[in-house]
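Need the bound structure for ISJ, inputs here:
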Amino acid sequence: MSLTARLERGAVGLGTLAVGAGPVVVIGGAGADARWINLRDHHGRVPAAESVAAVRADWSGPVLVEPFSAADLPEIAANAAGVVVGAAWMQDFQLVRAVARLGLPVVVQRAPSATLEEWLAIADYCVAEGNDSVVLCESGSRTHLGGVTLDLALMRAAREKSGRPVLADLGGDPALAAAAVAAGADGLLLSPGSTEQEALAAHEAVKIVGAVTRREDPDSLLTARDAIDRVDAALAVLLERRAELAGTIQRLKPVGGFAGRDMDRERRLVADMARRAPTLGEDRLALIMNAVIEAGLHLAEERMTTHRG
Ligand SMILES: C=C(O[C@@H]1C=C(C(=O)O)C=C[C@H]1O)C(=O)O
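Answer from helper R.:
Posting the output first, comments after.
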């Protein structure tokens, strides 16, 4: 889908990036699709221009900025693709209004104790200022253990109720990336200082889990190829896992390998798969699965020979 077509479907554009249609985006530090800067991290001691210039030194893509105060807004208006209304000042209505008036897309983080209604009300404040480009970001609630729990059910409800794109704020730990993508996140927010490895882990979840759970409707060659590449990545993971399991079965069966081939079982598994892949249908699936099964049996026999040898 072209950026314009994506935006027509309720996505929010962050520079060249569409959030809400197409693949799940990763926002964070190095290796992410968009960078973000939290000016609150420095308690206003580092000028906005300096922080933006530091990121701009090696990044020309979209940058999101969370201001420390209203004084940062001119710099943000000039140099950012979007503004973050941080969880800590979600209730500062004056600042929210001033941010919305910049006309840039606004990411509204949920304050730790805010309800769904309170959270969505902030989006309404932005709309009242004439800014409808709002992305909601679930940033977690404080728990009795002193930690922060991401509420993926609330994130999902926010998406359904508002029709707006949603982000899951994973902080410094991409371990929940897969769960967030499965729960319908349109983007994953890593901390501004996240590493390339963390971005890689998040992108991997976007590819593998997104390929299975996220419906995409690409309408350009480039985006369709991007989408099919993600499906192939997921297929590769499953094919590798399948080959391992098929190998285990060959070792456990009384007669393994090609000599113990069980065509009845193969027909049954193809028929089962055809229920989930009705468009392909049984005959085409049989051809595909025959190749997959034979590859597994070859690998298993090769390994048995190596082990015996
Ligand atoms: C895995 C098995 O061995 C063979 C390989 C199969 C497969 O890869 O799915 C299926 C049937 C057998 O021909 C099995 O018997 O279950």
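Comments: The chain is about 50% helix and 15% strand. The chain has a mean pLDDT of 94.
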